Amino acid sequence: QVQLVEPGGGVVQPGRSLRLSCAVSEFTFSTYGMHWVRQAPGKGLEWVASIWYDGSKKYYADSVKGRFTISRDNSKNTLYLQMNSLRAEDTAAYYCARDRGVVRGMGYFDYWGQETLVTVSS
Amino acid sequence: EIVMTQSPATLSVSPGERATLSCRASQSVSDNLAWYQQKPGQAPRLLIYEASTRATGIPARFSGSGSGAEFTLTISSLQSEDFAVYYCQQYNNWPPWTFGQGTKVEIK
Asked: Does the beta carbon of A36 lie under 8 angstroms from any beta carbon of chain B?
């Protein structure tokens, strides 16, 4: 059974930093691209960032570019999202998701972790 | 960026009835379209990919159709566990991966 577990999250002041992690099991992590997706309270899904299976390529939504960094440690089967210069509008539930690469190496999201809540507030 | 538009925003349906949800892309996405179901407090779950292929374990009452820029998700006979929010997503032109705003299927 594929598992994606996201500990962490929490309340952080505007301008501060937070790192999310997503520990995976029951699949060969090093062969899959991965994503972060977020959902503001009462809103829809917003793609945040993506990383290739080997970490060689990374992509970011304009809303987080320059502030967030996606990374992975294939030896630890773990995905990360380093969030700097946090803003109130970053308040959301964050999900990690596994990619099924079908279009130029990436595609839809077939497994999702449970939410980790991030609240940015003073 | 491809904009995905879903309609209606809310669909009121009685159990056992058929539900039809629409998703339109601002330009062609071929058949690179997925549908997800999300229940309150839960992560989204993949239902359909490649516009019409059911994901593993998804009941046959869920079906997807369409290609290009117009897509439909049909739930043939709504069960109590199907009342949820449904999102479409294109993965043809990325980044960014873009989602529709969602359709909430509620009990009539």
From this structure: no
